[in-house]
Amino acid sequence: MPNHSSDLSTLILATKTHYEVLGVSRTATQEDIRRAYRALARNVHPDVAGSTTSASETMAEVNSAWSVLSDPVRRREYDRSLDATMSSGKVLRDDERETFFNVPTTVSPARFPWRGALFFVVLGIVVVLVLAAFVDPEAPPGPDQLLSSGSCVDIDATLAVREVDCSGSHDAVVRQLIAFDAKCPNGSEPYRDSQGMGTACVDRVPESSP
Fold first, then answer.
1. For 194, which DSSP code?
2. Could you tell me the residue ranges of all domains in the chain?
3. pTM score, whole prediction
4. Does domain 4-83 have CATH number 3.90.180.10?
């Protein structure tokens, strides 16, 4: 029987960006990223894939990608670094491009069917508005135990943290989730994630006065 977890581990470690690690595009929503992380974590976690060096490295890659992409601020900074890397590539001059590709540098632009495109855009907007009028808005999702920056947590007797609803009382707020062998930034306290996905760096919530 093929070892799908091992194949998945090899695939993830061969990729380059956090988006590729989680198997999502750069335009993915936070919910898309959350679902992708959940699926990967279940497949490549050492408890499932086996306690091997490859499985541990793969889980560390997944946790690192989730730690960055689940935090909107860190994700924006990461995207800027990707854009800077892509824009640093060499751009050919017009004369180089004509010689290298053997095509003329000036090409007449193709006509675009603006009228047809405008019709479909308007039609799409109308359809969306009609559907929205008949669909009840979904209630916001509750805690799913996948910790990310801003998650509210309670600390149990084993010094592990579990996500709770931020509208109720809670012990702390997660600053970021890191690998087990990494260190939390200054000012935050390290606690074990109850799901075994890494170390949660949290900021304690001050106790309310009686």
1. T
2. 4-83, 152-204
3. 0.44
4. no
- How far is residue 23's CA from residue 195's CA, in Å, rounded to a whole number? 22
Sequence-separated (6 or more) residues with CB below 8 Å from residue 78: 18, 68, 69
Return d(Cα 16, Cα 5) in angstroms, integer.
19
Q: What is the pLDDT of residues 170-191, one digit of tens each?
A: 999 999 989 888 899 998 999 9
Degrees (nearest 5) of the Cα angle 65, 69, 72? 155
Q: What whole-number distance in Å separates Cα of residue 2 and Cα of residue 53?
A: 19
Q: From the CB of residue 95, how many other CB atoms can be counted at a distance below 10 Å? A: 9
Contacts of 126 by beta carbon, 8 Å cutoff, 6+ apart: none
- Per-residue DSSP letter, 24: -
User: What tokens does 176 get?
Assistant: 């970021």
The alpha carbon dihedral of 167, 170, 176, 181 has a sign of: negative
Residue spans of alpha helices (H) in 45-192 = 46-49, 53-69, 72-87, 94-101, 114-134
